[in-house]
Design brief:
The chain is mainly beta. The chain has two domains: about 30-285, Thrombin, subunit H; about 295-415, Galactose-binding domain-like (Jelly Rolls), CATH 2.60.120.260. The protein is about 5% helix and about 40% strand. The protein contains four helices and 27 strands. Strands 1, 3, 4, 5, 8, 9, 10 and 11 form an eight-stranded antiparallel sheet that branches. It has an eight-stranded antiparallel sheet with strand order 2-13-12-16-17-18-15-14. Strands 19, 20, 22, 25 and 27 form a five-stranded antiparallel sheet that branches. β14 (about 225) and β15 form a beta hairpin. The longest helix has 13 residues, at about 275-285. The relative contact order is 0.16.
């Protein structure tokens, strides 16, 4: 079904606004949840300024519930991620293959730290959030190694990620995809549609809760801002819509052309699917047919250089473990650690793989903690499976509270790959 076509009036050209946390007229996507996820209240990380703004002519509308089990609506959903101990929400879509979930990188990243977990709720539409039993978990994700956040056009050109499940599982029905999404984005003859989950709509400040919304259709051509990053004025969405699919209607059906990565009250920014994005998906799919871990070769690496952690520090210290000579697909990762302290509740510790995946080892807590942080062959294989184990693994540590000094003694990683 092709939704009704909205015309877009020519509006004054505005500089495309990044989705930042700053106090400006911009909106940050995704949304940090400050309460339990089942609560209705969410907090938008930025604050709208009181400066006047031109508003868009194409705006998000709640999707009719009767559409949710038909394409393209039944492939889009909510993506919840855990980053640095906080939970965020954004949007995502199943495309190309039922094991692939497309979104944007900043739904999975914040301030130098990548997500350690994620859940997807397909075709959800309600005033309340789904329970964990109504979601499916992600096994891992890939992104551009050079992405590090930021608000420039060159940063948004890298703001792309694909989550995946294991070989024999599914996120749900997959939409077709375009090999050259930017061509469709820049074509004024192609109808376009945005799906997603704005927690708050830009144009009227109303809450979107956990309802699926559609913006469009519209045909206006987007312009290239930088590489795969395209922008358009006259269209708006809202915080929480980040990572939502931008679809193009071609050959009688909707296909994925790009991902929403930025926006304001009168503009959107889109990462178009290009050769690099499609290669990322192809590499994930190729990994599903890799040999089993019985064929994998393992290596053990250690760091025993002792270090007294700074007391009451906001900054992290680190120790590295360098792996080389393994196959490029990680099979198992087992980690041992000793940090000596009279109170381990002061410690924040996490392990970062060469390609940026994060596994939290310990988070500070004033309750239920004892002496020393000790791990013996903790199995982190699920977190790092499928990624390249070769390179520098970095253990980050900080002693968050004053007193009870801590000393790093040793870390041991046993990794295998094929």
């Amino acid at each position: 079904m092709l939704p009704p076509l909205f015309s877009v009036k020519a509006l004054p050209s505005l500089r495309p606004h990044p989705l930042t946390k700053s106090l400006s007229a911009t909106i940050r996507l995704p949304v940090k949840l400050t309460f339990n996820r089942v609560a209705l209240s969410v907090t938008v990380l930025s604050v709208l300024s009181t400066a006047p703004a031109a508003f868009a002519q194409v705006i998000p509308q709640r999707v009719n519930a009767s559409y949710l089990e038909s394409a393209p609506y039944n492939s889009a959903g909510l993506l919840f991620t855990t980053v640095n101990g906080y939970e965020y929400r954004g949007s995502a879509v199943v495309a190309r293959d039922s094991r692939l979930l497309y979104s944007c990188a900043h739904v999975l990243y914040d301030a130098g730290i990548w997500a350690t977990g994620g859940e997807f709720a397909r075709a959800w539409s309600s005033s309340s959030s789904p329970a964990s039993s109504q979601t499916v978990g992600i096994r891992g994700f890939r992104y551009y190694a050079t992405y590090s956040g930021g608000n420039r056009a060159s940063d948004f050109a890298l703001d792309f990620a694909i989550c995946y499940r294991s070989a024999n599982t599914s996120f749900g029905p997959a939409l077709p995809w375009l090999k050259n999404g930017p061509n469709a984005l820049a074509d004024s003859a192609v109808p376009k549609l945005i799906l997603g989950y704005p927690a708050r709509r830009d144009y009227d400040r109303a809450r979107g809760y956990f309802y699926q919304h559609q913006t469009g259709t519209f045909t206006r051509a987007m312009r290239q801002a930088k590489n795969s990053y395209y922008t358009l004025s006259g269209v708006s969405t809202g915080p929480g819509n980040s990572g939502g699919p931008v679809l193009a209607y071609t050959n009688g059906a909707y296909a994925l052309a790009g991902m929403l990565v930025s926006g304001s009250s009168n503009s959107i920014g889109v990462h178009g699917l290009n050769k690099a994005a499609n290669s990322m998906a192809a590499n994930i799919l190729a990994g599903f047919s890799t040999p089993t871990d019985t064929d994998a070769v393992s290596k053990t690496v250690k760091n025993t250089r002792e270090f007294l952690l700074p007391d009451a520090s906001n900054a992290y210290s680190y120790r590295d473990l360098t792996v080389s000579g393994l196959g490029t697909t990680s099979q198992t990762s087992k980690f041992s650690l000793l940090i000596e302290t009279s109170f381990r509740g002061d410690l924040d510790t996490y392990l970062r793989s060469p390609n940026g995946r994060i596994r939290w080892v310990h988070k500070h807590s004033v309750a239920g903690a004892g002496r020393d942080l000790v791990l013996t062959k903790a199995d982190y294989s699920t977190t790092f499976a499928g990624s390249d184990p070769n390179g520098v693994w970095r253990l980050y540590m900080r002693d968050y509270y004053r007193g009870d000094r801590a000393t790093f003694k040793k870390a041991v990683l046993v990794a295998s790959g094929n």
